[in-house]
Amino acid sequence: MTLTKADLADLLFEQVGLNKREAKDMVEAFFEEVRNALEQGDSVKLSGFGNFELRTKSERPGRNPKTGEEIPISARRVVTFHASQKLKTRVEEHYAEQPMQVAQA
Amino acid sequence: MTRSELIDLLAQRFPQLVLKDAELSVKTILDAMTENLATGERIEIRGFGSFSLNYRPPRLGRNPKTGTKVQVPAKYVPHFKAGKELRDRVDAIGQ
């Protein structure tokens, strides 16, 4: 099952003891603070989980896949995520134990 | 921004809570996300993005020190795709 904000709020209610309102607000605030930092050009390093970094991409040629028409892809700033060694290892270990069915993004 | 700076910012947002609550909240959220990805489950956070796993097929690698060939087994690696709100907000500044 896909993990959502509602699931995270339930966990904060059960495991941290926040009330339902606080739990929902805390989850929202968590992701808002990460977005804020990234929006301001600051990278976010969450030890044990991974780092969110910013990359500036210059304009490059692109193509409309439907029509084949050439159109430039404008310069932009994008977010990249690099999983921590701990997270990578956890994912690999589980796969080594049992091949799994994975839902793609 | 580091994990402890995030905890401080959240504690400031919730003056009725003690620092320990903000700390435990961050730990609970990140542990749940790690646990889900580690068992092959997706994470979908509206307005932020989604995390899933990408398959890496087995390949023949090389030990960079000795140059000997080694079989690298297939594996899954975590992947993040930014959501629309995050994409737009990050790109808006500096344009």
UniProtKB/TrEMBL annotation, chain A:
Is Transcription tagged as a keyword?
yes
Query: What transmembrane ranges does the database entry give?
Result: none
CDD domains (UniProt xref): IHF_A
* Keyword ATP-binding attached: no
Q: Which SMART domains match?
A: BHL
Q: Which domain of life is it from?
A: Bacteria
Q: Which InterPro entries match?
A: Hist_DNA-bd, Histone-like_DNA-bd_CS, IHF-like_DNA-bd_dom_sf, IHF_alpha
What role does this protein play? Answer: This protein is one of the two subunits of integration host factor, a specific DNA-binding protein that functions in genetic recombination as well as in transcriptional and translational control.
The family annotation for this protein states: Belongs to the bacterial histone-like protein family.
Task: Tell me how this protein assembles.
Answer: Heterodimer of an alpha and a beta chain.
- The protein depicted here goes by the name Integration host factor subunit alpha
TrEMBL record, chain B:
Task: Give UniProt keywords alphabetically.
Answer: DNA recombination, DNA-binding, Transcription, Transcription regulation, Translation regulation
Tell me the CDD domains matching this sequence: IHF_B
Q: Which InterPro entries match?
A: Hist_DNA-bd (IPR000119), Histone-like_DNA-bd_CS (IPR020816), IHF-like_DNA-bd_dom_sf (IPR010992), IHF_beta (IPR005685)
Cross-referenced HAMAP family, in alphabetical order? IHF_beta
Family assignment from sequence similarity: Belongs to the bacterial histone-like protein family.
Give the protein's biological function. This protein is one of the two subunits of integration host factor, a specific DNA-binding protein that functions in genetic recombination as well as in transcriptional and translational control.
What is the protein's name according to its record? Integration host factor subunit beta
